[in-house]
DNA sequence: ATTTATGCAAACTATTTGCATTGCC
DNA sequence: GGCAATGCAAATAGTTTGCATAAAT
């Protein structure tokens, strides 16, 4: 199952990297379609999933609302505006040992964690 | 807009309280339908939302997968099995002042946070 | 030549909503 | 009796998938 280098694939990767905010699949699609009107939504979804599977980008599964895609760098947390739904990075150190605070694991094997802050962004607050 | 006391409403509340795990709307519906075959999915959804709006239960919006409903007690964190998708409570103190660790809020008004641990539950690990 | 990837549309999951009807209060 | 709540079905949002065709290797 060798990966091939298609125009669509590289457009998806390039677009996720260019979009500073954490774009949804639809936002990636909308951006690409402006220049390449023949790309399909299905292809965008397939490539976003493939690229996040191989670690080129990261899929951020958000509670309520669409998944968002991020060009990884380091582990970090996010905050979501409860009014507009947009997602932003939070400037806070990653708590690598958070799992050690768990009192009883009940046999559960922990592999990581996400923290999602909730709040109102400056634009929605004005 | 006075709330009325319908059979369906009390069945939904009773069922959420009875189901120990964090049930999805569908699991609540399936449970009720066994005894009351005439209840509709729409009514279950409407009542789950209404009950969580008035604080009788809590809606847990999960990244990927259906929302889950919980009969509140106190603020607490959750963990989700990456294999079966089920959600469990985590025995860990709530970090009330977590927001104070954020270095620069960029004008964002924080109102709370969720922590979702990821891992593999004992059943899926065997 | 092979076989992955694409475009398209249909299917799917989770949830909401419009509307006529039912049934609390 | 009035208005909230229900059942039903259709609509919606986000995403996946089957299939014939196109294109990368």
Please, could you describe this protein's structure?
The structure is a homodimer of 126-residue chains. Chain A has helices at 7-18, 25-35, 41-53, 122-125; strands at 23-24, 58-60, 68-70, 77-81, 87-90, 109-120. Chain A has a three-stranded antiparallel sheet. In chain A, strands 5-4-6 form a three-stranded mixed sheet. The mean pLDDT of chain A is 91. Chain A is globular, with a radius of gyration of 17 Å. Chain A has two domains: 3-70, Winged helix-like DNA-binding domain superfamily/Winged helix DNA-binding domain (Arc Repressor Mutant, subunit A); 77-125, 2-Layer Sandwich (Dna Ligase, domain 1), CATH 3.30.1490. The first copy, chain A, has 126 residues and is α+β, with helices and mostly antiparallel strands. In chain A, 32% of the residues lie in helices and 23% in strands. In chain A, α1 crosses α3 (41-53). Chain A is built from four helices and six strands, in the order αβααβββββα. The A-B interface holds A 60-64, 67, 79, 81-82, 88, 90-93, 98-99, 101-104, 106-122, 125 and B 60-64, 67, 79, 81-82, 88, 90-93, 98-99, 101-104, 106-122, 125. β6 (109-120) of chain A pairs antiparallel with β6 of chain B. Chain A binds a DNA duplex (25 and 25 nucleotides) through α3.
